[in-house]
Specification:
Distance between the termini: 69 Å
Number of strands: 11
Bound molecules: pyridoxal-5'-phosphate
Largest sheet: 7 strands, mixed
Shape: globular
Strand content: 5-15%
Number of helices: 20
Radius of gyration: 26 Å
Amino acid sequence: MSQLGGMNADEFRKAAHAVVEEIISYNQNVASGNLSVLPSIKPGYLRPQLPSTAPQHPQTWDQIQPDIAKSIIPGLTHWQSPNFMAFFPACATYPSILGEMYSSAFTAPAFNWLCSPACTELETIVLDWLADALHLPKDFRSDSPGGGGGVIQGSASEAIVTVMVAARERYLNRRADAKDLKDPSPEREKWIADTRPKLVALSSDQAHSSTAKGAIIAGTFHKTVGTKWGEDLAVQPGALEATIKKCLEDGLEPYYITLSYGTTSTCAQDPVHLLAPVLQKYPDIWIHIDAAYAGTALVCPEYANTSTPATNGNIRKPEGLPMNDHDLSQKIDTAEPPLESPNGLLPAASDVLKHVDSWNTNMHKWLLTAFDASLLFIRNRKDLTSALSITPAYLQNKHTDSGLVTDYRDWQIPLGRRFRALKIWFVVRTYGIEGLRAHIRRTVRVGQHFEKLVTDSADGKQLFELVVEPAFGLTCFRIRPGAIPKELSPAQVQDEEESVETKKTINGTPFGTIEQQDDLDDLESTKKKQAQPTQSIEDLANAFSKQVVEVINDQGQLFLTSSSTHGKAFIRVVCGNANASQEAVTRAFEVIVNTTRDVLAKAVDEASRA
Ligand code: PLP
């Protein structure tokens, strides 16, 4: 090390080897499931371990590296653990880590083509590959006659706010053109300034919060279209049209809508094919599909060929396919599960997506690519570039002027950008499309194994109920109101009646088990004896479901989340992780069952002592 510090090539070689070894052993340790998925430290744990000021003098790598094991790893939540079933996964794989290494080495904030032509050109090529691999319409390719294309954004939230700004500008300019307001002119500028505060972005009440946040950043209103349990929590055409009409009556102008392909809470899918006819009546509304998590499933033809809700999120596993194949390069599952389409006539993704302006998915969630790699595809790149392109004198160059090159700075909010295409390139090449499909199919099957434990095991039937049809490896379930001990709620009769009624209508499918019929019979006989309700059994089922998640997370061996909507709280178990396995979800189910029994028993005990 020189007196000025830093690292020379020999020191880097030695340090990098040591880092690679440590990363491998960390990964193996995490994959084994032996590490507690949640750290056991308390908030503020790190400050006492580090000096209060930055070092005055250079330190060697031998002094620095041990602090990773000592201070950093104990404060990590292990997203790659098979016991991480909380949020949608963030899969990091070796090829994507290699991509990150090169990306750092080649650091070039390639805001325009000249600032590293390879960064731009590789991005365009891999995004075209992925548009095809994901079975998206050809319109989203960079060579489409309509001028579409893809760009890598840092996150789905960034993708959403970016297209929202493009949508806002497109809406205002189209409307100003329709009014024959000369461009540029002070009149046009004033009309746009007066109209902008009336704009409203729409989404379902289930859409990810990034749409609400995007609307704040874009400086517009945000209104939601209501959904219902009995309608798969998906936007329905009537509700959409009513919301648009109400906005117009109130003097607001809808300019943008997020439709979801896999909502965060339950993986609900808005039926684009049914909503498109409504939206075609309002052609200035920009349609964006947020497929942040579930969208990567479209790499499998069985998902892409049925882009219709309620069937494509839940493609059933053919019996006998492996469920524990961690090493996809060894054993590739290329079988396409049979479709369970009600009529076999469902529109393909590419047909449905012909109606939309933009679509995004995160490879850094389910598709084996280290954070961050959010793919945004757009039908007409001019919509983006005319909203976001500003070329001050210092950015002018003959290549940009020629119009022959892409300057991705005009497709995003920041100027500089990372070389993210490399890691995507490596992932796609080392897995191949078949390997990517195998990963999606395997993890969906792990999810279906978990679902069966909830619906078919003796414990599952006794304690739990699904709140929606599981989809894309996500199972949402809660404690059955009928499983709440009688000692806890003198009011259960009336509420159970409502609960069973609700169950009967979810998806139009009777989720209930035979025991729920028993509940009904029980209900009839005890109803007459019961006094007026004083406490809701639904509230108890909700509260205990949430408590089970809290107790499990406090123990740290398993990481789950709960969510709630329209009066129901529920537990979410996600199985998209690259290390997810049948064994891990079976163990998780045992923990959930035991914890549920403990929580209910403790509550009974406390109630009896009160
Ligand atoms: N959209 C959906 C449906 C999500 O589930 C999420 C995050 O889980 C997001 C958007 C936001 O993703 P990001 O963290 O990439 O902004």
